[in-house]
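Memo to structure team: turn this sequence into structure tokens by end of day. - J.P.
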Amino acid sequence: MELSKDKDALEKQLITFSEKRKRIFLVILLIALLFSIAIALTIGVYEISAFDVYNVIGTHLNPYGNVENLDRLHDVIVWNIRFPRILVSVAVGIALALAGAVYQGCFRNPLVEPYILGVESGAAFGAAMAIVIPSFFLSLQISAFIFGSIAVFAAYSLARIRGETPVIMLILSGVIIGSIFAAFVSILKYLATDAALREIVFWMMGGFYYSSWSDVGIILPVVIFCFFILWILGWKLNILSMGDEESRTLGVNPEFYKAIFIVIATLITAISVSAVGIIAWVGLMMPHAARMVVGPDHRYMLPSAAMMGAIYLILCDTLARTLTSAEIPVGILTSIIGAPYLMYLIRNKGKLIFGVS
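Reply from structure team:
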């Protein structure tokens, strides 16, 4: 009897230690994120001292600061170009990593990523329409967001059978709808002028070159709000990842909560893609990296993946704008890094990730 009590007490101590370790890791990630932002602000093709950079930021953030006393060129580069660009990269990194983690949890599939339901192809079609026929469509961002959302809604409607949405049907529907929109994009590329074709291709590569404070004001609040909703519902996602039957047994309606998670993940994916184009691999890589460190508990995995995604995109964007005089699209860098990472996972973590015995 005493041995059993000692065993239970030891298990509780181990659980408590594990929880503390995860919380410490989250704090470390937050510090790393803030440090990454601070360093990225000081790096650029045009060299500005760290003192001048932080003087510009501090003056703007200080309600009593006098912006007129700042060097005009430094003010434009730091406050109007670098800072909003970095904040947008943080928001998009959080959004794509969160969406990937949510989709992987809902679909119980480690290969699922934010574009699985066709939002990528839908948004690309919307952007291409805005570029090729600008007089008949809204702005590029709004058009991309609308058609990205339409693609996901079409995929979800197609997969719904007798009041249920089987995972395999949802994934297949996403592939079908994505292929249809991809074909439409190809038609628009064929009809586009040379200038429009270059713009379409450049947009599809993804990048933060046009990021502004208006983008920050739209994307960041939505992403932060959705992050807290998903974080609060993290324990529900833990149950959903066990399967539909187990979820019903534990009193959780899988269809209802799947719809909530998919809508939120789609919203933050669509709003990100509409602003910066298609940036691949973030939503596939970051949830895996977070899961390997903090485990599958979404209460810790979601914030870990979100901060890792933000740090990763800050790094990629900083490299994109400093490696050469001509800026490299961020989507190229994330793909170059992401493909070898997935190869590593398959070769070295196959049993853990794919359940191979």
